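Regression test case RT-17, inverse folding.

Input:
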């Protein structure tokens, strides 16, 4: 079931929307989701551990999202004044509820007179365009999309329905953005890839003639840069989430539902599979394949292709358990050096005799 966002739900509605079970008063009205300490008489809060549930039971929140396991561990007398939303995944349910109850930023439903919009632009219904927005020729924008102040859209761009572009986002020519995409402030999508042919005299620029495709349900963090393909597209597949300050090179393909953490860099023409996770400050060289469900630890320097489900770390990156063994041996190295020196001394003494 889907619903239009508003700021007031009956609890039974939220239970249906999140596939959770109500234990208590189904008719309660909820208008906000917040932490235990900030809760009020119309809040839903969240407790996925016993110590948090103890605090939540003393809070003002009438509704607590928790798990069946934790709920069953508590005496019913302690829970008589609270209503529960129970699930096997309380974090997911709370996140969904908070999303439903949080007003959508910059959603005015109006087109500002201080925006610059080419006459050829095709605009859907109920879109929000704020002051300082510039939209070039032959752009198409779907229903319910929001362009915050200062967004710049280059020519021949396609943007789907229900997208949100925060202030200062730049979308370069020919980019295709599908539905329900969020792009945070300062991101640049479709800038030229770093491509040069070098001879003894200079570096010759290789024209970057491809584009960028952002599939549905992607979120792109602040100050992310995604280069257009040199020939053909750079692709961010459906459901992927990019943290802030990430660089993605030309013709990279990031697979579905992947998670890329801050300061990651991916060189050109590398392909990431489904549900790849890259820890903070990971670096991925070009022209390799990162298999489905690969996880790279923070600061991993990935220089070769991986196998499905690999957990890698280090520089250069290798299977994590092997990297841990190497680190353990390196920590012991001073002891080994001292031992070798002692053995050399004893050997010298024996030779002198």
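Golden output:
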């Amino acid at each position: 079931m889907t619903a239009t966002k508003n700021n007031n739900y009956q609890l039974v509605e939220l239970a249906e929307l999140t596939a959770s079970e109500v234990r208590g008063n189904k008719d309660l009205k909820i208008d906000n989701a917040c932490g235990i300490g900030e809760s009020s008489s119309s809040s839903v809060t969240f407790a996925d551990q016993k110590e948090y549930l103890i605090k939540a039971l003393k809070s003002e929140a009438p509704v607590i999202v928790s798990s069946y396991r934790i709920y069953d561990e508590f005496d019913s007398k302690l829970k008589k004044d609270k209503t529960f939303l129970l699930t096997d995944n309380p974090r997911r349910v709370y996140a969904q509820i908070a999303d439903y109850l949080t007003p959508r930023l910059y959603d005015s439903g109006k087109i500002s007179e201080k925006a610059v919009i080419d006459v050829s632009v095709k605009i859907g219904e109920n879109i929000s365009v704020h002051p300082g927005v510039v939209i070039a020729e032959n752009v198409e924008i779907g229903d319910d999309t929001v362009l915050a102040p200062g967004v710049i859209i280059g020519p021949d761009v396609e943007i789907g329905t229900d997208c949100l572009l925060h202030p200062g986002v730049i979308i370069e020519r020919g980019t295709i953005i599908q539905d329900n995409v969020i792009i945070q402030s300062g991101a640049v999508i479709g800038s030229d890839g770093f491509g040069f042919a070098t001879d003894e005299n200079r570096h010759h620029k290789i024209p970057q003639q491809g584009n960028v495709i952002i599939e549905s349900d992607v979120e792109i963090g602040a100050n992310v840069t995604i280069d257009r393909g040199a020939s053909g597209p750079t692709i961010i597949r459906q459901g992927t989430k990019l943290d802030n300050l990430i660089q993605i090179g030309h013709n990279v393909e990031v697979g579905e539902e992947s998670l890329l953490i801050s300061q990651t860099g991916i060189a050109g023409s590398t392909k990431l599979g489904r549900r790849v996770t890259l820890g903070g400050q990971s670096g991925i060289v070009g022209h390799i394949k990162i298999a489905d469900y690969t996880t790279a630890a923070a600061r991993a320097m990935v220089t070769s292709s991986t196998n499905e489900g690999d957990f890698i770390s280090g520089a250069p990156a290798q299977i994590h358990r092997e990297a841990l063994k190497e680190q353990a041996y390196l920590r012991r190295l001073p002891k080994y050096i001292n031992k070798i020196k002692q053995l050399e001394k004893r050997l010298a003494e024996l030779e002198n005799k």
